[in-house]
Amino acid sequence: MTRQPHPTVLFVGAGLLDPEAGTRTPDSWLLVEDGLIAGSGRGPAPETGDAVEVVDLAGATLMPGLIDAHVHPTAFSADLGAAMDESPSYVATYAARSLNAMLRRGFTTVRDVAGGDWGLARAVDEGLVDGPRLMFGGKALSQTGGHGDFRAPGRQGNDTHACCPGAGVVCDGPVEFRRAAREQLRTGAHHLKIMLSGGVASPTDRIDSTQSSEDEIRAVVEEAEAANRYVTGHAYTARAVNRGLRLGVRCIEHGNLIDESSIELFLEHDAHLVPTLVTYQELSRQGARNGLPPASQAKVDTVLNRGLDALRMAHEAGVNLVFGSDLLGGMQDRQSEEFTIRGRVQPAVDVVRAATVNAARLLGLEGTIGTLRDGARADLVVVDGDPLADITVLASPEANVRAVLRDGEVRYGRDGWR
Ligand code: ZN
Ligand code: ZN
């Protein structure tokens, strides 16, 4: 595989999967020029000069690169507290490997919602790490004893220096939350993440607690709005989700225990929901051997069963649903399994939309990624099979993803893919 900067490539014989239209059109062509999509259509391709490389996909699907809006490439273990004691260089190296594996599964953009920072995003931009484009929020903001406080109850000290590779920063009171928000924004964060309820991977909180006071949440929302960014919140229960949405949080992570009252608020505020079902399936199956502490094991079952019901309810009501996986440690290689789980509740086309056009809208990149529109970035995946007919095609990337392009460059190609 040779890599040229921005080659002009004409794909022919493609099944073009357009997530916005919800269609797959066989016998189609698509032109990539200067890293962008320069045109596409059905039937015979336009005449091009000798300088254009023509690639016959022989019926394979060509679709926008996938977007995962909830990843933690720096999470080398399900024991998130372990990161505080690790070397930043070890964590960065782990993250590089994790990001590369995501790219090979067809993900060309991912959103890091705790742990990843500006250094990792820059390494991807400069090509030091061959991974998906990284949208990061820096460290998640958490109250003492909250989901971003990974100390065991007997531990007092909490070293949250900026160079420590932990996933959370502990703050109390609106002044500290505001400062922490500004610290993340100062490094170029694309969003801010705040803990609105207890979680699975934190040792001392409860799933059904609410976290961060109203004035703390308001301070963070105000800072995000001032910087033209948005706040996303970790929350499970309707009580925690609704509180966040009413206070201006624009996106909710997980949401497994929501009810009809939450659905109304999602619609009223045009907010996004990022379910992360595969992580509960995998934590249940293999959390212990991936470092999940016993106190966290018991929490998994509570949220596992209700997650599918929440997804069904949100889908039927027309909530903006976005793809997320939230896997930790060695479980990250199950990322694409989320497609199969969602396919049990949603039509394939809606699952594809969650990982393309809906995710792009959440990231503020609508029309730029997650689409085949002219002028969009040529982030593309070549897939054997038709994901609209069978969504599980995307769940076996090692068998079905033939090539991955980011900004028009082939970043991964299997078996001399042409
Ligand atoms: Zn979370
Ligand atoms: Zn997470």
Q: What would you note in describing this structure?
A:
It contains twelve helices and 18 strands. The protein has 418 residues and is of the alpha/beta class. The chain has two domains: 9-65 and 371-413, Urease, subunit C, domain 1 (Roll); 66-335, TIM Barrel (Alpha-Beta Barrel). Strands 1, 2, 3, 4, 5, 16, 17 and 18 form an eight-stranded mixed sheet that branches. Helix 4 (214-226) links the parallel strand 11 and strand 12 (230-237). The chain starts with 8 loop residues before the first strand and ends in a 5-residue tail after the last strand. The mean pLDDT is 94. One zinc ion is lined by residues 70, 72, 113-114, 326. The site of one zinc ion (ZN) has 5 residues, from loops.
